[in-house]
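Entry for the shared binder. Reason: the reviewer on the internal report wants the predicted structure included alongside the sequence.
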Amino acid sequence: MFKGKTALVTGSTSGIGLAIATAYARNGAHVVLNGFGDPAEVEKTRAKLAADHGVTVHYDGADLMKADAVGAMMKRALEAFGTVDILVNNAGIQFIAPVEEFPPAKWDAIIALNLTASFHTIRLAVPGMKAKGWGRIINIASAHALVASPFKSAYVAAKHGIAGLTKTVALEVAEQGITMNAIAPGYTWTPLLEKQIPENAKLRGISEEQLINDVFLHAQPTRKFVQVGELAALAVFLASDAAASITGTIIPMDGGWTAH
């Protein structure tokens, strides 16, 4: 489906991002991975992805909180592949605290990675997409792009910002063969979510089991975590020609959470 195209997926050394990158490689796209992790494990992941699917896979460890590093990553990708046809902004971090106790440095970091980095990758990818008359940009937002939860002021603010950025850029590039959409997952079982559980349970004064059942899954009528493979399948569809008329949308995949 994507033979000859290149997909750059941020935050793709694990979790949702890796599932999406794998799905694109499976469908013939060359891939640029980005994210943190043990260098040996990252190289093992990169090599396996390339070998399993017969595509070229590069890894770029750029720190997306730094504008210069984002620019350098995009330059390297363009030099290596000539274009970035599919851009998926997935990298993100989380921190929870009451707003009056929220560390300003944590606010700055979350806004930088979860929102500002996407602005930089988009602005640098769009010229090449316009030149080709084809491009797909997908932001991995969150149900928190549509609704809020307590103790997540920075994360919710960033994800609401991603929703606005998605709609705005979609309008700007609508006549250029480029689509721009956001996927808004509900609670998905990933390393990021798993790390939140002990701290969040302690903050709320409940057990981890209660947190999972009464907070996380209580929000989702299906009572199930979203699976990374489900999100990857949607990302593949949105990048396909079949989705050429879908743009400027925020698509929930949240087990019914935002239907409340």
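Summary line for the report: Strands lie at 6-9, 30-34, 57-60, 86-89, 135-140, 178-185, 250-253.
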